[in-house]
């Protein structure tokens, strides 16, 4: 058995250092690898969320808010049961940056599967109590059925970790697309057949099963139940912090669902779910998608040139903020016409909550790369400490705001998100040797673009509201133009960095 310290470290001559070329026949630099990874991840994300949005638009006209609330409760239960279910083995596989399928990888699979099996049994047994907590006792079987997703996910979790470790993003997209296509197809078909909340849960499981099958067919990992005790102790040492961080992240991300379902009801939870949908897709979804690239990329940078981590992190922060803050601003300003146009007037009460949700998720998304840096350098315990403050703050804010309704809960969460973003920025600035001014400078272009979006989008919204679709399209176009103009005037360097490659591409094409 080989300990981690005895394994050959990755270096310029180590096998497996270069990112797989994905068919282009070229060995890429770190920057090129990151760009390719982002491109593939964004493609996967776009395909996934386009399919998901189509299904939601259809299902919103077939199901009522209470049925959506039941599904949201089941999803929250699944997420809570999955807390720490893999003992942090997937991030440990990424962090260690080994080459090939080793005993350590097989040990990670064994630990992951064993923990998932135990938790699946526990989840099935606890389903009746949880269903009653959400006021959905008549849907107990759905909670039991949903718990099976934990075991399904465990069968492909380490395979996914191997693809992430090797930065094989073009391969990783295929299981994701297969999963989402099947989820949409099965859910919509069953909903048309007359099933209610059951349609979404069954579709969810069908997609997970397809994801596992594809992972096994595309990944070189052929699992065997191996338990290398030395490797297990070393991987759990890193993975425990990762697992604890995941526990806290899921709790923080589901506390609002639990509080609304328990204290306000499934009808309100259905409205809140719709209000959350687009911000989740366009903000937190993008954050997690880019983190899929940022974490392994920063881990690779740590191995190659630790001194360059500060610049790499601030660069990722700047570009993510340029996306997140303007998008959050646009969703907030245009929440009413978006809800009316996409989901119909039945869901109009969701629009005010969408404003607060967008503000909070924009702050979280903009600062997400800072957490990736801490994970990449093995300091997840720092994130755990910050979350030890954040989770109680979120819980208290949700409970105190619940009597005032879902909009109050949304703004309470936004306040907690801003506090978390500030704490994370201060901590990471010290870690990478950057001053607060450098972090603020990285966030400033995004803030400038957001200001332009708010001014232009709000001007159209206040002067024109009907008919909904033309007003929405014009307001969105003006918001985009306002954000672009503000970026050019207030952050010219970032504007040139973003527009330069596009202009060169256009000139090259026009010159042919």
Could you please describe the fold and organization of this structure?
This protein is mainly α and 512 residues long. It folds into 2 domains: 32-240, no CATH class; 264-506, no CATH class. 80% of the residues lie in helices and 0% in strands. The chain has helices at 30-59, 65-81, 89-96, 103-133, 140-165, 169-192, 197-218, 229-263, 266-304, 309-333, 335-343, 351-366, 368-376, 380-401, 406-431, 436-463, 468-490, 492-510. Helix 8 packs antiparallel against helix 9 (266-304) and helix 8 runs parallel beside helix 14. The longest helix is centred in the middle third of the chain and has 39 residues, at 266-304. It is globular. The N and C termini lie far apart (59 Å). Mean pLDDT is 80; it is low at 1-28.
Descriptors for this entry?
512 residues; mainly alpha; 2 domains; disordered N terminus
Tell me what portion of residues adopts beta-strand conformation: under 5%
Mean pLDDT: 80
Q: Termini, distance in Å?
A: 59 Å
Shape: globular
Nutshell version of this structure?
By secondary structure, the chain is an all-alpha fold. The protein has 18 helices and no strands. The chain folds into 2 domains: 32-240, no CATH class; 264-506, no CATH class.
């Amino acid at each position: 058995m080989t300990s981690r310290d005895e394994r050959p470290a990755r270096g310029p001559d180590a096998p497996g250092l270069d990112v797989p070329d994905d068919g282009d026949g070229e060995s890429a630099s770190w920057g090129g690898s990151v760009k390719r990874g982002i491109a593939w991840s964004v493609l996967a994300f776009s395909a996934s969320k386009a399919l998901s949005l189509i299904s939601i638009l259809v299902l919103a006209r077939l199901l009522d808010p209470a049925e959506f609330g039941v599904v949201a409760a089941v999803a929250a239960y699944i997420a809570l049961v999955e807390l720490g279910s893999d003992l942090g083995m997937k991030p440990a596989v990424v962090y260690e940056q080994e080459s090939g399928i080793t005993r350590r990888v097989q040990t990670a699979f064994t630990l992951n599967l064993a923990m998932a099996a135990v938790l699946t049994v526990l989840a099935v047994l606890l389903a009746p109590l949880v269903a009653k907590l959400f006021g959905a006792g008549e849907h107990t079987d759905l909670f039991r059925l949903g718990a099976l997703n934990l075991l399904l996910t465990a069968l492909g979790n380490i395979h996914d970790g191997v693809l992430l470790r090797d930065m094989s993003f073009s391969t990783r997209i295929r299981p994701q697309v297969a999963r989402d296509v099947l989820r949409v197809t099965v859910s919509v078909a069953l909903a048309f057949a007359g099933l209610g909340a059951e349609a979404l849960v069954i579709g969810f499981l069908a997609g997970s099963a397809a994801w596992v099958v594809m992972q096994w067919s595309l990944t070189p990992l052929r699992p065997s139940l191996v338990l290398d005790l030395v490797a297990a102790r070393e991987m759990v040492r890193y993975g425990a912090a990762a697992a604890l961080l995941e526990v806290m992240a899921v709790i923080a991300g589901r506390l609002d669902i639990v509080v609304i379902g328990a204290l306000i009801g499934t009808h309100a939870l259905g409205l809140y779910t719709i209000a959350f949908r687009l911000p989740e897709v366009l903000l937190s979804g993008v954050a997690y998608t880019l983190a899929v690239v940022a974490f392994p990329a920063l881990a690779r940078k740590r191995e190659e040139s630790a001194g360059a981590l500060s610049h790499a992190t601030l660069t990722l922060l700047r570009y993510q903020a340029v996306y997140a803050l303007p998008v959050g601003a646009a969703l907030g300003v245009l929440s009413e016409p978006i809800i009316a146009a996409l989901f119909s007037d039945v869901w109009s009460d969701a629009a005010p909550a969408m404003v607060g949700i967008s503000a909070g998720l924009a702050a979280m998304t903009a600062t997400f790369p800072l957490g990736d840096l801490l994970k990449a350098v093995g300091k997840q315990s720092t994130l755990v400490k910050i979350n030890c403050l954040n989770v109680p703050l979120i819980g208290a804010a949700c409970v105190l705001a619940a009597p005032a309704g879902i909009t109050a809960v949304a703004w309470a969460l936004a306040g907690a998100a801003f506090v978390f973003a500030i704490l994370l920025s201060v901590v990471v600035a010290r870690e990478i040797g950057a001053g607060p001014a450098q972090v603020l400078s990285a966030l400033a272009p995004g803030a400038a673009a957001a200001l332009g979006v708010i001014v232009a989008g709000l001007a159209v919204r206040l002067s024109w509201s009907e008919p909904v679709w033309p007003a929405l399209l014009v307001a969105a176009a003006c918001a985009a133009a306002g954000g672009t103009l503000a970026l050019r005037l207030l952050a010219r360097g970032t504007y040139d960095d973003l527009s330069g490659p596009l202009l060169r591409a256009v000139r090259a094409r026009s010159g042919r």
